[in-house]
Amino acid sequence: MANGSVRVRFCPSPTGNPHVGLVRTALFNWAFARHTGGTFVFRIEDTDAARDSEESYEQLLDSLRWLGFTWDEGPEIGGPHAPYRQSQRMDTYKEIAGKLLEAGRAYHCYCTASELEERRDAARAAGRPSGYDGKCREVTSEQKERYEAEGRESIVRFRMPDETITFTDLVRGELTFTPENVPDYGIVRANGAPLYTLVNPVDDALMEITHVLRGEDLLSSTPRQIALYKALMELGIAKSVPQFGHLPYVMGEGNKKLSKRDPQSSLNLYRERGFLPEGLLNYLSLLGWSLSADKDIFTIEEMVAAFDIADVNPNPARFDLKKCEAINADHIRMLDVKEFTERCAPWLKAPFAPWAPEDFDETKWEAIAPHAQTRLRVLSEITENVDFLFLPEPVEDEASWTKAMKEGSDALLRTAREKLESADWTSPESLKEAVLAAGETHGLKLGKAQAPVRVAVTGRTVGLPLFESLEILGKEKTLARIDAALAKLAA
Ligand code: GLU
Ligand code: ZN
C-alpha cells in the first residue's frame, strides 16, 4: 500500500509506566504510517479520571520522544482535529451520545447492578448467553417515570443490531461475530461520564482514522465498534468504517501473557539499564513481524521501508529478554565510537559512577571505549567495566578474589610483577608476553596465569581485555595494585 491517505492512531491511556506491549503497538502504527506516507495521530485517552494522572501523561510523551517517534497530530503540536486529549473533548461525546439516543440507536438502561447479576446467573444456569438481555430496549415513558420516581439511575446503552458482523482483520483474516455474543453495551455511565466504548470509536471517526492497529486483547470490542461506526455514519458523523488489525499477544515467562505488572514489561527499566531505543525497537518489531528469515538485526529505517501490516503473524509472540539484550548488543556495536562514548555519558557520572568526578580521565576513557563497545549488552554495564581506571583502588569483589587467588598465586604474582616491570608498556602484546612467561615459570597456562593479575588490578575475574586494560591504567598503578594484592595475600 502506498498512499498519503492512511491515518493511524496511537491512543494510550495514561495509567502508569508505559509497558513494552504498548511500545510495540506504537511502533507498528508508526512504522505503518511512515511506510505508507500516512499520518500518525497521537491521542491521549484520559477519560478515566480515577486512573489517569498528569505524571503518566508526561511520561508517555517523554517515552515516545525517547523512542524517537514523531507524531503528525497530537499533544503539543495540535492538528486539524484538536484537542487530542479526550479529557478536553467531553462536550463532543455528550453531544454524540445525545444524537444516538435521539435516533434510537442507544437507550437508557435502568437495571441495577444486582438485577443484572441475578439475570446473568439465571441465564448461565439455563445455558443461555449471559450478556445483557435487552430488558430496557423498549422501556415506555410511563415505566421511565416510574423508574425515575423510584430514584433509579440509568446508564446509556448502545443498541446492537440483530445481525451477524463479519470483517476482515488485517492480521487474522475474516472474523465473524453473531448477535448473541455481542450484546448491547454501556457507553455512558450513570454520572454522565462517557466510556471507552464510546469515546474511542467516536474519536477514530472524527479523526478519520483509516486503520486501527491494536492488541488482540481489544478484539472483542471490534464488532461493537463496527456497529457504532455504522450508526455514526447514518448520523453523518463518520465517513466510513476503518480497517482493523489485531496484533498478537506477547507471552512472558512460563508462556503466560506478559502483563503490565511484570517487571520485564516496564519500558523505564529498559531505559535505566541502558538499552538503545533503536535496539529495543528492533527487538520489539520481531514480536509478530520479521524483516526476513535470515536477518534479525536491522535499523528502524530498514523496518519502515519493509513494514506491511499484512505480514504480521497472528500467533502469540514470545518475549525473550536474552534475545532482546543480544540484539541491543549488536546495535551498540553498530554505533560509531564517538556516538558510543556520548551515549555512555550518563553512566560515567553520579549517581551511577562510584568514582569522584575529578578522578575521571577523558583520555583513558577514550582509549578503553572501543574495547568496551564490543562487549556491552546494555550501556549501564559500562560503569563496572571501567571503574578500575578511575577508582583509587579496585573494587573488592570477594567472590572474584576467592576464585582467582589460589595456592601459589602469590608466587605467580611476584613473577608477573617482575616481568611486567621490564616489559614494553607501549604494547599490550609485550604485557601479554610478560604474563605468559610468568605462567610458564609456574607451569600455568595463560588463562590461569592472568586471573590473579586481573583480580589484583581490576578487582574482578571478568572484564575487558586484560592487556589493553593494563596498558591504559599504566605501569605505575598496575604494579602498585599487584603489590597491594601481594600484601593482602601475605596478611
Ligand atoms: N486507550 C486504549 C488502551 O490503551 C486504546 C485501545 C485502542 O487502541 O482502541 O487500551
Ligand atoms: Zn436495563
Structure, described:
With 491 residues, this protein is mainly α. The chain has four domains: 7-85 and 250-318, HUPs (Rossmann fold, 3-Layer(aba) Sandwich), CATH 3.40.50; 89-247, Glutamyl-tRNA Synthetase, Domain 3 (Glutamyl-tRNA Synthetase, domain 3); 335-388; 398-490, Orthogonal Bundle (Arc Repressor Mutant, subunit A). It has helices spanning 20-36, 54-67, 90-102, 113-125, 141-149, 196-206, 222-234, 267-273, 277-285, 300-306, 321-334, 337-344, 362-373, 382-390, 398-404, 409-421, 428-441, 446-458, 466-473, 475-490; strands at 7-10, 39-42, 106-109, 155-158, 165-169, 173-177, 185-188, 211-215, 243-247, 250-251, 317-318. The strands form five sheets. Strands 3-4-7 form a three-stranded antiparallel sheet. A two-stranded parallel sheet has the order 1-2. The protein has a two-stranded antiparallel sheet with strand order 5-6. Helix 1 crosses helix 10, helix 9 (277-285) packs across helix 11 and helix 17 crosses helix 18 (446-458). It is elongated. The chain starts with 6 loop residues before the first strand and ends with a helix. The mean pLDDT is 96. Bound molecules: glutamic acid and zinc ion. Residues 109-111, 135-136 line the site of zinc ion. Glutamic acid binds next to loops.
Distance between the termini: 75 Å
Number of helices: 20
How large is the share of residues in beta strands?
5-15%
Low-confidence stretches: none
Number of domains: 4
| CATH topology grouping of the largest domain | Glutamyl-tRNA Synthetase, domain 3
Determine the structural class based on helices, strands and strand pairing.
mainly alpha
From the alpha carbons, calculate the radius of gyration and give it in angstroms. Answer: 31 Å
How would you write the strand order of the largest sheet? 3-4-7
Average predicted confidence as pLDDT: 96
Quaternary:
single chain
Largest sheet report: 3 strands, antiparallel
